[in-house]
């Protein structure tokens, strides 16, 4: 408020005409174009006839009739939307059943469903920390966890990738007593696996909590797809909290936090991305429940995803490309530059193979890549086609 009585002075950099107020966006867009970082939406048809190596539908369940049919039936029974936030009218019996089944499947005491994995991560990180806490994170965690750290007001130490000794050092030198160590299980860009056992042991030693984002582990790793946390023997551990998305292996939409009952109770009372957000649509809850049912009935699906990812990686590597060894479904192929990555992905699409193209700022290390995702329903013919298109269209500098 201006209390001096004099007219406020205008900053001289602000344009006077209203039509100029967003001129700076064009300047920013020009800079992104010069750096090869323009992003384009490419709406797909319902049956594009492409070989999809870009989506996260690892088990091929998004279009499975049992899953899509459950979503359709739930929409007709419960309505197209949830009608309100979870604490008002948005919690249906479907949400409660999904939470019960998710917790049971993954071996956690309890679960809480959010409208997305992003919201689950924001809610878990902020509600479990705050200004009185310290956070120690791997430097390659997912953007949703990074946003949670930023919103948390905690002291945040970002440490080297997959480095339990660096985590231990940050914990030993922290200034706040309460602390949360945050990591992805399978890292979304390169598809490598965090040393969860060592991280959990470090957390136990220091008496702090571990939060693992198992978005890419659920449905792919662990006994019958129970996830990387389960595989590491940490399911039900009293100091471990897991977040998952329902939008990858489960082919649906939404997210969840799994952990000790008192953690879930705390989130219901305090997680702002839970409280002030319309609940997950009943159709998505029903789809995720049906997908869990398929996973339980067909426990061989996760193994097929990993086998396909391994084969893709081995064959592309043998063709001279720089490719990661996948821990789960994600295979990453280095590209020489952002522009070359975009051109390469476009040439793959022209040949009917859709691949992901990751460039800064989506990649933490500044290296542009094609990101490929394997699926349980890929055939040998699909893999042959994928390998030949990706290698035939590769820029010379990719080898
Ligand atoms: C590691 C990781 N965490 C969280 C999310 C966010 O999940 P959702 O897409 O359900 O918001 C994603 C997905 O994009 C992810 O890859």
TrEMBL record:
Pathway: Cofactor biosynthesis; biotin biosynthesis. Residues 51-390 form the Aminotransferase class I/classII large domain. It is an enzyme of class 2 (transferase). Its EC number is 2.3.1.47. Keywords: Antibiotic biosynthesis, Biotin biosynthesis, Pyridoxal phosphate, Transferase. The keyword Transferase applies. The keyword Zinc-finger does not apply. Belongs to the class-II pyridoxal-phosphate-dependent aminotransferase family. BioF subfamily. This is 8-amino-7-oxononanoate synthase. It comes from Amycolatopsis arida.
